[in-house]
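Trying the structure run again after the queue cleared.
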Amino acid sequence: MRQKGAICIGSAKLTGQTKYYAIKARPMMFRALALSLLLTFAGAGPDAGLAAANLAQVRPAIIDKAEIDKRASRLMHQLEMVGMSIALVEDGKISFAKGYGEEARGSNRNVTPDTVFRWASVSKGIAAATILSLEEEGALELAQTASLHAPSLNLPKAEKQISIEDMLAHKVGIVRNAYDNRIEGGKAAKETRSALRDLTYLCAPSTCHTYQNVAYDASSEIVETVTGLPYKAVVHERIFKPLGMSSASLTLEGLTRSKSWAKPHGRFGNLIRRVKPNYYRVPAAAGVNSSVKDLARWMIAQMPTEANGALPAAHQEAMQQGRVATPREQSFLNRNFKALKEAQYGLGWRVYDYNGHKVVGHRGGVEGYRALILFDPARRSGIAMMWNSPHTRPIGLQMEFMDQLYGLPKRDWLRLGAKG
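Done. Tokens:
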């Protein structure tokens, strides 16, 4: 039943029932006030009318969840889409969560907000947060040489070896995604890391960004060395359990034993029969599974708050501080999502400028799965998404969310055409 004095902002089928998410209606005085101020300062000059016309296109900074739901539903009509889940966070709380499509094409098993997907590289922030918690206890220091606690990290000889901080920011210096092909071929992580010594540097260590998985996963080895415990056990106790992320896991078994889990699909919507274990061998880089609601809980933990459950403010600041420019990422954004500018990397997070606002996020992909987070820490608002096909079109929905958050003109970032 809809609440009196509220507006319906979408519905989601949960365990056979339809649940409505609603928020209190707010005064819609933004346009009139802003227009009045603009005309006051613009006077009767020749640009006053144009400025007023442009302002008329600017929407108030209220998330229209019905529109997000409509756009997501229309996205699912695209042939490449199979299943997807999204969660929206406003003012530090989940305001909308919904599943779309199916766990597997033709299965008649609907995706819900509790369906488990793979995070892929969005997992990297978990590793950074875990290491920061160990540093806070005095078990290690970010300035220490990474190989001190990860002996398998055998990089080419150099005057300076990378620190743990360099590793978490991908300032390694070797070719990007070094030896991912060996992990995909079934090689063990430590064996593969030891072989990195055979490569050459593209830049001096700690001076440029070259994205890594094998080297980044030295994080899990560091955690195990200083704690004497399995990485998955440490993450569960330090991250998943305190944040109430009950669906989260770090193994293939954790995925497939979930009550509802999305199956991977290929480029043309074909079901991939077997989930490969390869990237679970580098759990710090790409090993997390969870529902979108738990992915949203992880996002909320990055936002400033006095409530229990959030990461310490010092950890948030350390992770979300841009430490190195990422020109390859910026090149991708310039071609596809040009509102995201000044792309940098922090510790396990990417950092951008969006229309003058600092936003933080990450994308991830392994065979048959994609995931993303994008949020504004100051406004404590953001979007989390996961889908079980290897396409980039859904990334556009995060852009449409941000345009709404900042009251910007509506843009078709999903490339769905005029009917959207």
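The chain has a mean pLDDT of 88. Worth checking whether this holds up in the mutant runs.
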